[in-house]
Specification:
globular, four-stranded antiparallel beta sheet, 1 helix, 6 strands, binds zinc ion
């Protein structure tokens, strides 16, 4: 059963990931995001955002997927 579209965010291209989400994982803001296997592997380097339904319309600031120990748990983007 498809869970929905990955909520990963490609910063350089300013777009949403096109893959299917597979698991929920926690962002640096403490909220849960649906992620594909690629974005789960990216971990510290990945960005996530909130989106309007299954569309590519972003409705929140991008947030780091996990707190980066070198930078603290700051949201960035
Ligand atoms: Zn993804």
């Amino acid at each position: 059963m498809a869970m929905g579209r990955c909520e990963g965010y490609y910063r350089r291209e300013n777009r949403r990931c096109d893959r299917d989400g597979e698991r929920w994982d926690e962002g640096s803001n403490g909220e849960l995001y649906l992620l594909c296997s690629y974005h789960r592997r990216e971990a510290v380097r990945a960005s996530v955002a909130r989106w309007s339904g299954e569309t590519g319309l972003r409705r929140s600031r991008p947030t780091a997927l996990r707190p980066d120990p070198a930078r603290g748990a700051l949201a960035w983007g």
